[in-house]
Amino acid sequence: MNSKIKNQNLDDVGALTIKELFEKNLKIPDYQRPYSWKQEQVIDLIEDLLDAYKNKKDNYLVGNMIFHQEESKEEINIVDGQQRTITLALILNNLNECIFEQCFFKKDNFFKGDKNYCTFLNTAEISLLSSKILKNNYNTMQNMLENRIKNIKKEFFNYIHNNVIVTYIKAKDLDEAFVLFDSQNTRGRSLDRKDLLKVHHIRFIQNYNKQKSVAKEWEKITKKSEKEQFDDVDFVLNNLMLIRKAIRHELNGDDLIQLDVFKEFKTESYEEDELNNYNQPPIFEKFEKKKNKKILSLLSKDFKQIGLFKIENSLEFLPFEIPQSISGGEKFFWFTLKYYELVLKLKQEKFFTVLDNVYGSGNIFLQKIYQSSIILFVDKFGFKDCEKFAIRVAILLMSKRLNASIRKEGIVSFKWIKDNDNELDIYKLVFLKYSSNLVLNELEKYIECNIKTVYKPKTGTKKDFFNAFVDYEKMINDILGEKYVGGKRDDNS
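Structure (tokenized):
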């Protein structure tokens, strides 16, 4: 079959029978997710195939696949469609009664047979987790097929082999394959933009073992727990992007709703192990000048040494800053890991998460400004004054919440915080100031200018916003003094 259509931007597109598919030199690249199809998905696919067989459909399409093939290499990487391809190989193996080894933790040759789909399954890198899912799905297939098609196994096998087809797009350029992948709505589990970033950056790592190691670590920190309300890496990348765009004066209201982190964190350059004077590890906390000896001493931050060359909190010393240009390869993963760890520490602080359970678009917009500005502050100055900073930002946000309607464009322009005609850009303030005290002092000026009274509203989402900070009323009162009226005034705004 294999009909091909040429396109100037693609290597080729076309269709393949399942037999033709497994005749290809298919490879599951390291950046792919582990095999994860649930039993329900396996059953649905078999049911669809059985319906097509019983209705005698000449050709039955099971989806579109995206391939990437590097020049001068025979292997074809599956960018989209690996879950479905593995499942089809399992079904064929089951129908053909090839031997399936029950030892699931051997590296090679789970499947004994000379068929192409056996070769494909045996050459795929199977993780410990995937092997357990393979076993469960294989047993599900075995029981289902034994009950449903006991006498037509051979005919059903031949039908799948010769009449079931996939369409495909094969790209020479990997980035183009990612874009195609991102736009597809397939039956399998789609990669999101942080997974596309993994794929994009991993190709800049030349060492194969390092590629595998990075892919495993990325999978570890991006795996969403069933108990977690949101993905920490998504949260980190979105906040970093808000900060980066704000510092570049590119932040707009729509960014508070949706951000394209793939576009933001794509490779800008690739320099192998190159450091400059600005990105040396920030391990020195302050300096001391001894006038009599005319000596300048650099005083190191406190850190715990665990072993000869290992530092417990060494991630803090990585030579990265939020607005830096993005270098391809391993540096991007270390960059993300540094801020992932920083955010995990912040999420243990009550002041950082106080707005997590408030609702209403206005509150959520303000929450994003609040949390992202704290991340920038802690990245630059550490945790010492971060609570003081957070509550001062909260007071300014309270003023905004009381005295004006919340519009996303107005929030990101900071035109609501004024000292005469001087607007306060919180991100710019933190980014440009030398010390945390200078930041706090500047915020005090704007609080004095902007806050006439801060009081608790009685109802609505405004009340929810204020109630989130109930444990900080004394701190707020200390900052505002007599201006803070607590809950004594009605909401006339």
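Residues 1-10, 102-110, 185-190, 487-493 have pLDDT under 50 and may be disordered. The first strand starts at residue 4 and ends at 7.
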